[in-house]
Specification:
Elements lengths: L6 E12 L7 H14 L4 E7 L2 H11 L5 E5 L8 E5 L5 E6 L13 H4 L2 E6 L5 E7 L12 H18 L5 E7 L7 H10 L2 E2 H4 L2 E3 L29 E7 L3 E10 L17 E9 L13 H50 L10 H48 L2
Parallel strand pairs: 1-2, 7-8, 10-12
Antiparallel strand pairs: 1-13, 2-4, 3-4, 5-6, 6-7, 8-11, 9-11, 12-13
Helix pairs in contact: 1-2, 4-5, 4-7, 5-7, 7-8
């Protein structure tokens, strides 16, 4: 009912950059994060890149008194890195892993092995539906080979939110989206779901200029990668929206600004984002915000579909190249097998090559055949997913244009 007391919800979101053996001062920073969360009175904590389950267990034990409810989302080879801590009961959870997560042969990036996902907690605080997530990293903005994959992830995330939020009254999404605010992916996500940006809507803001969460002054950031962005970039978000009879307003948004209080190091290479939301029931249902049919949204969908099409053509070329490589390796193996059988049958007086070289060549051809076949199949699946996403976007675009 209108006039009911406002519920104040405090949220903490952080990409922890806690990669075992690789992240600098990882254990010290995880302890620092736990100590800070114990001192603060947050209602909901969303963490990404907690790659070690032992780190999660350490945090869980330390935070049990303040945040009695928690969940760790497991996926991929090394895990999703997503976890949530809450003062309110978590009644149900769901993990959705994106269809495309980069390339398995890009070992130096590793996104494919962790299985980028979105984790959902329901019943955290009736009627709140909370999402913690991370999308594929950008790595190189000038030559972003992962843009089609990230757009597929953004589209799947938007569709996932639309289909899972129908029974909720308030939807909250927090995490490292690895996209700038003006990028087509974030505009697609927000336009298609109606999510509001806490930074843009906040009555009061305090923290890094422009709300940046990856800043050059952070001692853990790669300074060379930050040269084009002297002020930093904003890639960590808290997004929200109200459905049904609720309204949500962002009273305050803060980011950390370098080293944590009383220490010489920050929590992570990312700055934390902290939002204070006011949730209130109103007398009449709120206006629907799912998929606003306007020209701006149609333009965004068109732009995203174009980029996905570019990725589709690149994937088709990769599929063709690896398929041709597999065929050539198979032909070489057949040629060697024919020569070996001819020698055994006495059709040849002597082996045309030394046996060692012959065997090494056979093993090399077999290795190339297996590798090329696997990558051909991988890119075949990539083509199917990109093509399917392109078709979905076309149907959505047609619906937007035909809607009265």
């Amino acid at each position: 009912m209108e006039g009911e007391p406002t519920l104040r919800l405090r949220i903490f979101d952080l990409n922890c950059w806690a990669i075992r053996y690789l992240s600098k001062r990882r254990q010290e920073r995880v302890r620092l994060i736990g100590d800070t969360l114990c001192q603060e009175s947050f209602d909901l904590v969303l963490l990404q890149e907690v790659w070690s389950e032992q780190d999660y267990n350490d945090l869980k034990g330390k935070l049990a008194g303040c945040y009695p409810f928690s969940h760790y989302f497991r996926s991929g080879v090394i895990g999703s890195g997503l976890c949530v801590f809450s003062r309110f009961p978590i009644l149900d959870t769901l993990l959705y892993q994106y269809s495309l997560n980069g390339y398995p042969y890009m070992l130096q990036h590793g996104d494919w092995f962790c299985g980028k996902s979105v984790g959902v907690g329901t019943g955290i605080m009736a009627p709140l539906l909370s999402h913690s997530l991370q999308l594929h990293a950008e790595y190189c903005r000038d030559k972003d080979a992962y843009l089609p994959h990230r757009l597929v992830q953004a589209w799947e995330l938007a569709q996932f939110i639309r289909h899972t939020s129908k029974a909720a009254d308030v939807v909250l999404l927090g995490g490292d989206l690895n996209m700038h605010p003006e990028d087509v992916g974030i505009r697609l996500l927000r336009g298609w779901t109606g999510l509001q940006d806490a930074f843009a809507e906040a009555t009061h803001f305090e923290g890094c200029k422009n709300g940046c969460t990856l800043v050059p002054d952070n001692c853990f950031t790669n300074k060379s990668e930050m040269l084009p962005f002297p002020l930093g970039i904003r890639i960590d978000y808290i997004l929200y929206k109200a459905i049904s009879t609720f309204t949500v307003k962002c009273e305050e948004l803060k980011t950390t600004t370098g080293p944590a209080s009383g220490t010489d190091i920050p929590f992570s290479d990312h700055e934390a984002v902290m939002a204070t939301l006011h949730i209130q029931r109103q007398g009449q249902p709120a206006c629907a915000t799912l998929g606003t049919a306007d020209l701006a949204l149609a333009d965004v969908v068109t732009e995203a579909r174009t980029e996905v099409g570019v990725g589709l053509r690149a994937a088709q070329r990769q599929r063709y190249s690896w398929g041709r490589m597999a065929v050539l390796a198979l032909l070489l193996l057949l040629l060697q097998a024919t020569a070996a059988l001819g020698t055994l049958a006495g059709l040849g007086t002597e082996q045309p090559f030394p046996k060692l070289s012959f065997c090494l060549l056979a093993f090399l051809a077999l290795g190339v055949l297996v590798l090329a076949t696997v990558l051909h199949l991988f890119h075949t699946m990539e083509v199917k997913i990109l093509h399917g996403t392109e078709d979905q976007m076309w149907m959505a675009l047609r619906a937007l244009k035909e809607r009265p």
